[in-house]
Write a structure and sequence with these properties.
Elements: H1 10-19, H2 22-36, H3 38-52, H4 59-63
């Protein structure tokens, strides 16, 4: 496994993330969750499969 060490502080990373546009920040956080959490990836796969199988309800169906 290739490892890359980058000498950057946590504070600098947080500062950079805070400066991102909202959409970019949300995408970054989702990517970070995906690469660090097998459970998150599995939940996304399950949700997509349920959607494709028509096992979901719309917002209107639930809250009307």
């Amino acid at each position: 496994m290739l490892q890359l060490k980058v000498p950057i502080s946590t504070d600098k990373i947080i500062e950079a993330v805070k400066k991102m546009k909202k959409a970019d920040r949300e995408a970054f956080i989702e990517d970070l969750l995906a690469i660090t959490s097998p459970e998150y990836l599995q939940s996304v796969k399950e949700a997509r499969a349920e959607y494709k199988a028509g096992k979901t309800k719309s917002h209107k169906e639930i809250f009307s």
